[in-house]
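Q: I'm building a small set of examples for a reading group on sequence design. Run inverse folding on the following structure and report the sequence directly after it, with nothing in between.
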């Protein structure tokens, strides 16, 4: 049977674009299909990352898509304890970011088809046939990078995440108010204001900011949390009338932050990015790079079996799995704590610059340093709050 392309990537997500680029860089014939008519438009609301995350990718940050450089983050407890973490962060123009990376694909001769949706996949011997809104495309490998909600994996009986029901459902709004964009630290509020994860304040400069809530296990409609967050935010910032915060645009969506990758390969098929529980722009990009590199190697060796493609899973596990497990354990502890416990925990960091405690190094070694700090400062409280994390193997 003739093939149309050696590797077909479905979805121009950060992971999909990176997978296509990595495969093409290894001299295989790559086609990327994207259901939007234009890559990056409408833009995905995900528009921030930290340098330590971007360092995971093999790329460097380009200033043509950076809107604003930030000095770090404040983590704020229900009673207002602030943990300060100085770490370079970025707010990006997501449309420019996606288009910048799509240009790289064109340079690498990736065939890009926009306005084309994948509907189903059928495996015939060593060929995967993908039916799309345009035509049927035959390829040696299909990389599914279609985000959390498109459902192609379910159609073919793959279970790409361990905890598919643990998506953080989000509302993020672009807002406007006098001077709201001035501070250069992100603020993340934790506790019952956004159970299971965070309420966010990203000052974008001038009078613009993004405000969001990311909530787990309270259904997909999180608007009541968003309304509470707007009121709390107005109080925090001494804005007397909530209606002075003008909402320009609201985005809704799901973040697979705590869903954890599971089955990410099958014969001729690989899954990457949010679809595989690899949440986050930068971590998705790195997963995509590994995925594309292994896909190219498999095509060159004419072996696209699940066993050959499992190298992707092995490399990913070695490089990134412990960070995801650490993140999930931390979010689980947070989800199970009440506001008072969160205040006690964050109270230990009063007046402390978290960046001095964490130092440099991997997130795992940073987490261990944070735990040591807590155990030294308040052993009893730390032990009672952290024992689930220690039991999960992080310590
Ligand atoms: C409101 C919100 C804010 C967030 N903010 C951040 C942030 O600031 N920083 C961060 O790191 N992470 C953030 N996240 C998490 C982040 O969204 C994801 O981890 C990230 O977008 C990874 O992308 P993805 O793989 O999920 O795919 P997506 O970005 O969802 O991309 C999937 C692509 O596939 C296309 N597609 C889908 N189905 C098909 C199909 N059948 N055929 C063809 N094409 C298809 C879609 O059109 C889309 O372009 C946020 C999440 C949400 C919901």
């Amino acid at each position: 049977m003739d093939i149309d392309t050696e590797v077909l990537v479905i979805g121009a997500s950060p992971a999909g674009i990176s997978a296509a680029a990595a495969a093409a860089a290894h001299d295989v014939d790559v086609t990327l299909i994207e259901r939007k008519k234009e890559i990056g438009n409408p833009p995905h609301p995900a528009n921030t990352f930290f340098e330590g995350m971007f360092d995971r990718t093999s790329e460097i940050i380009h200033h043509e898509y950076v809107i604003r450089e930030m000095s770090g983050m404040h983590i704020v407890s229900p009673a207002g304890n602030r943990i300060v973490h100085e770490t370079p962060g970025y707010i990006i123009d997501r449309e420019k970011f996606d288009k910048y990376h799509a240009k790289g694909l064109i340079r690498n001769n990736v065939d890009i088809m926009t306005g084309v949706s994948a509907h189903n996949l059928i495996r015939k011997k060593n060929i995967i046939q993908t039916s799309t809104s345009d035509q049927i495309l035959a390829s040696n490998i299909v990389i599914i990078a279609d985000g959390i909600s498109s459902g192609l994996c379910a159609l073919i009986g793959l279970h790409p995440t361990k905890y598919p029901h643990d998506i953080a459902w989000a509302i993020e709004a672009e807002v406007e108010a006098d001077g709201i964009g001035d501070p250069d630290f992100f603020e993340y509020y934790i506790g019952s204001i956004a159970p299971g994860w965070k309420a966010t304040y990203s000052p974008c400069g001038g009078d613009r900011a993004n405000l969001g809530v990311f909530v787990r296990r309270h259904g997909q409609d999180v608007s009541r949390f968003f309304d509470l967050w707007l009121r709390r935010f107005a109080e925090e910032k001494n804005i007397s009338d909530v209606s002075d915060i003008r909402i320009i645009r609201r985005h809704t969506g799901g973040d697979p932050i705590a869903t954890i990758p599971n089955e990410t390969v099958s014969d001729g098929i690989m899954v990457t990015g949010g679809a595989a529980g690899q949440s986050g722009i930068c971590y998705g990009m790195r997963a995509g790079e590994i995925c594309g590199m292994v896909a190219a190697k498999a095509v060159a060796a004419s072996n696209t079996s699940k066993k050959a493609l499992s190298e992707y899973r092995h490399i990913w596990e070695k490089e990134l799995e412990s960070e995801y497990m650490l993140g999930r354990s931390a979010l689980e502890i947070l989800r199970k704590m009440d506001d008072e416990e969160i205040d006690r925990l964050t109270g230990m960091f009063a007046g402390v610059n978290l960046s001095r405690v964490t130092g440099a190094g991997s997130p795992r070694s940073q987490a261990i340093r944070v735990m040591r700090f807590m155990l030294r400062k308040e052993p009893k409280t730390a032990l009672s709050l952290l024992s689930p994390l220690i039991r999960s193997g992080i310590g």
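Residues 150 and 275 are 8 Å apart (CA to CA).
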